[in-house]
């Protein structure tokens, strides 16, 4: 049963990040060694999914995820949290001068997200944040599975 659920959920993640519907397309998202984290995730009846972005664009991703999860009925209950990682009203991550600054600020945001909301899954709905995620200390320390929009896109062309 678990092996059947995982591909369905991965497809949901892909659909979540892409505005188009590809129900019949076999999508394989690179999990970057997170398989064990996902195995634990799929054993739960109730989950909390956090969607993070560097602005409000991730709200549309979350709205789509809510609908997809409702339709899939994989879990008995799914709680969604939107976490805006935007650190300033003056400018976003692309206004920062160095990659190191971006990584440090996003790392802090992820740690705050996990400490305050304890999500079972984190979805990164921002290209910039998705690309720098693997360089955060959070990515090496967390037990929470994390999927970025870039991984979903790579899954489409792989």
TrEMBL record:
Molecular function GO labels: racemase and epimerase activity, acting on amino acids and derivatives
SUPFAM superfamilies tied to this protein: Aspartate/glutamate racemase
Name under which the protein is recorded: Glutamate racemase
Organism: marine sediment metagenome
